[in-house]
Fold this sequence. Notes:
single chain; 481 residues; alpha+beta; Cytochrome Bc1 Complex, Chain A, domain 1; 2 domains; 44% helix; globular
Amino acid sequence: MELSVKRSFLVILLLLTLLSPSTLSARVVQQRAPRPTATAPAAAAPARLPEAKLINHVLPNGLEVIILEDHSIPLVTIELAVRNGSYTEPPELNGLSHLYEHMFFKQNRAIANAEDYLRTIGQMGIAYNGTTREEVVDYYFTTTSPNIRTAMQFMKDATRYPLFDEREFSREKQVVIGEIDRNESNPFFYLNQEMNNRLFFKYPSRKNPLGNRQTVGGSTTEMMRLIQQRYYVPNNSALVITGDVNPAEVLKMAQEFYGDWPKREKDPFVEFPLVEHPPLPKSEGAVIQQPIQNVIINIGWHGPSIGKDNPATYAADVFSFILRQPNSRFQRNLVDTGLVTGIDLGYYTQRNVGPIALVAQTTPDKAHAAIKALYEEVAHFNDKDYYTDEQLESAKALLEADDLYSREKLSDYTHTLSFWWASTGLEYFRGYLPRLRATSRADISRYITTYIQGKPHIGLALMSNEAQAKIKITPEELIGQ
């Protein structure tokens, strides 16, 4: 199984941007870290690019069916998205959404030997996988158009009738613990962990889709049943189908396979409400010592939440894209001067407090000057001349183009649709491009003053023991004091 924890953590996304841009995929679009290598077009009003023509229909049991038809190639992707993930997990359940994902493609009522079955469908050219994030867990099959019924049938059996075989369960617990081991062997894991624990200090488990080793190790199949009963219900799920399909036939098939799936009488988020992450009471700084050659500076703020301040989420995306362009003042003052070798600022769209992260890479000998320069730039974000009208319009155009580009591979774009459906709702997604176009300087200014300038934040530095012994960065310095 695939855990999208590296893509779930905004810091890792930005580090990938700095360290190896070629590894970024179209899937990054949904997490507000668009490709940094695009070049700005000539200043002009953004072209009105074609928007995705989605069809959606809610079955009587509450299951939402979302269809994006595209006959350019004879492939189809079928994805089940569930509003589950770490934001539903108190400490005693942390990591169980991820473990459940691992059990999805195992034995069920119709499949006595899941491995043989999956080997067979692999030979048929059906690719499958699943991902776990903070606010969504999804599972997909990508196959040729004639195999759509086969994939739909297996999705039904895996969703509704899992067996949670004890031997398979014991095996998958060790697989998940192995993923935790691999993450903990990466120095950047500790930067992410420290930022998560400090930024979301009261409920850190709600922002940790990877999970807790002890919780996973002590889990039981009864806990899997608990998750199934709470969240794997039609009125908390969506079926997303993209590619070479006939929408009328797909809707008929969805009703056939899923129409008798019993609805949960009580909304799980009414019965088990999400927590409210409290605002940071003060700024904090810390140095994390790990064996790396360079110095990574990471500054984090609480950003806007979907449903509470939607206008700020559009402003966050546009402003981040302005800063990301090579000709921005942000890049010129920090990268072109040689103070940092790479820098980015991004916002990760979430319903339950989306973080804002500034990440920069520098060398030990330039670290003090780089930190000072970072805070000087932040102090000027709201200056009237910090960006031009042309840069504002170019950023909007590039964001629109980025969305269109991401649709070239529909199997990836299916995950984007699932992400939007779970975290923002489909109407937010449908209105996203028009609202981007309407974003003004005043909107960006309000975003900066509400969430960044003068607000409590976390400042971290990741570096080696030797570097810290030599340069002695202080926690106060890391929060701009």
